[in-house]
């Protein structure tokens, strides 16, 4: 029931690797890490969710908040590597229509 | 009406760190009752949404308790999540239920408000009562082929076959 967050800087973008479960308890940790990352002008951030097994509306809320800030700052972020169950929640809520989600597993970047 | 086979109850502090405990307990129970992998995952999210509601809204200044009750039937499970909070904003909970509208400007999207929509999407029936606090009852059927499945969670056929 823990969340692990790791930030990597690549030449053209930042990667936030998220592992574990995103719920009411851990969502604030994600928020504290993600918001500063996307609060820079023209920043490109890739959020790797391939090791996230669980997410609920608290986690979805963090990504909605991040989208607003990214829009304000002219930054962009993309979610990659979503597991089927996690992807399903973005689909049910319609968030896959507003958030950039990469369907492909991020094999080549590793 | 089918009869209640078992009743399981827990009371936990209404704190965010216990939402995961509720989720895993429901997962274990649903697994024992024979629910499918997908149904268990749906139940985990639905119960976490209800518990999160209690944690975030029920108690303003003090940490109260959240109560989780599970009524087990032959063909379904009812999960009842309750608080004894005085300040739960029932109206707020019911406002703007639904998925995200992709035509809305991003700045108008709400960070909250998806919880009840998810409960309704991921279980077969959600009932909300406001008494001294708020009580949310969710029903999930064991054999999904008895029920027509709708993504919006509205049950359209009579599930009582006997």
TrEMBL record, chain A:
Keyword Transcription: no
Pfam families: STAS
InterPro entries linked: Anti-sigma_ant, STAS_dom, STAS_dom_sf
Residue ranges constituting the STAS domain according to the UniProt record: 3-110
Entry keyword set: Phosphoprotein
PROSITE patterns: STAS
Protein function: Positive regulator of sigma-B activity. Non-phosphorylated RsbV binds to RsbW, preventing its association with sigma-B. When phosphorylated, releases RsbW, which is then free to complex with and inactivate sigma-B.
Matching NCBIfam families: ant_ant_sig
Family membership: Belongs to the anti-sigma-factor antagonist family.
Name listed for the protein in its UniProt record: Anti-sigma factor antagonist
Organism: Aliibacillus thermotolerans
Automatic annotation (TrEMBL), chain B:
Keyword Kinase carried by entry: yes
Reaction(s) catalysed by this chain's protein: L-threonyl-[protein] + ATP = O-phospho-L-threonyl-[protein] + ADP + H(+); L-seryl-[protein] + ATP = O-phospho-L-seryl-[protein] + ADP + H(+)
Database matches in InterPro entries: Anti-sigma-factor_SerPK, HATPase_C_sf, HATPase_dom, RsbW
EC number: 2.7.11.1
EC category: transferase
Entry superkingdom: Bacteria
Gene3D superfamilies the record matches: Histidine kinase-like ATPase, C-terminal domain
Keyword terms of this UniProt record: ATP-binding, Kinase, Nucleotide-binding, Serine/threonine-protein kinase, Transferase
CDD domains according to UniProt: HATPase_RsbW-like
Pfam families reported for this sequence: HATPase_c_2
Occurrences of domain Histidine kinase/HSP90-like ATPase (ranges): 12-140
One example GO MF annotation: protein serine/threonine kinase activity
Stated family: Belongs to the anti-sigma-factor family.
Annotated function: Negative regulator of sigma-B activity. Phosphorylates and inactivates its specific antagonist protein, RsbV. Upon phosphorylation of RsbV, RsbW is released and binds to sigma-B, thereby blocking its ability to form an RNA polymerase holoenzyme (E-sigma-B).
Entries under PANTHER family matching the protein: ANTI-SIGMA-F FACTOR RSBW-RELATED, SERINE-PROTEIN KINASE RSBW
Protein name per Swiss-Prot or TrEMBL: Serine-protein kinase RsbW
Species assigned in the record: Aliibacillus thermotolerans
Phylogenetic classification of the source organism: Bacteria, Bacillati, Bacillota, Bacilli, Bacillales
Name of the encoding gene: rsbW
């Amino acid at each position: 029931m823990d969340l692990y967050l790791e930030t990597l800087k690549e030449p053209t973008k930042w990667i936030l690797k998220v592992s574990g479960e995103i719920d009411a308890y851990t969502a604030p940790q994600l928020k504290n890490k993600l918001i500063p990352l996307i609060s820079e002008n023209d920043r490109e951030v890739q959020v790797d969710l391939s090791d996230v097994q669980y997410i609920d509306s608290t986690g979805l809320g963090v990504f909605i908040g991040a989208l607003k800030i990214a829009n304000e700052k002219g930054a962009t972020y993309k979610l990659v590597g979503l597991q089927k169950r996690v992807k399903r929640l973005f689909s049910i809520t319609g968030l896959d229509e507003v958030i950039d989600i990469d369907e492909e597993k991020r094999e080549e970047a590793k | 009406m089918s009869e209640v086979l078992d009743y399981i109850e827990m009371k936990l502090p209404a704190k965010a760190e216990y939402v995961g405990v509720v989720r895993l307990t429901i997962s274990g129970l649903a697994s024992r009752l024979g629910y499918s992998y997908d149904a268990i995952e749906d139940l985990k999210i639905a119960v976490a949404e209800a518990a999160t509601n209690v944690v975030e809204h029920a108690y303003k200044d003090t940490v109260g308790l959240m109560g989780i009750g599970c009524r087990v039937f032959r063909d379904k499970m009812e999960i009842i999540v309750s608080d004894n909070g005085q300040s739960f904003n029932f109206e707020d909970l019911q406002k703007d239920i639904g998925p995200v509208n992709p035509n809305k400007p991003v700045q108008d999207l709400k960070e909250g408000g998806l919880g009840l929509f998810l409960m309704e999407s991921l279980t077969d029936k959600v009932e909300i009562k406001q008494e001294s606090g708020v009580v949310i009852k969710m029903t999930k059927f064991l054999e999904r082929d008895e029920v027509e499945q709708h993504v919006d969670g509205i049950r359209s056929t009579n599930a009582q076959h006997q």
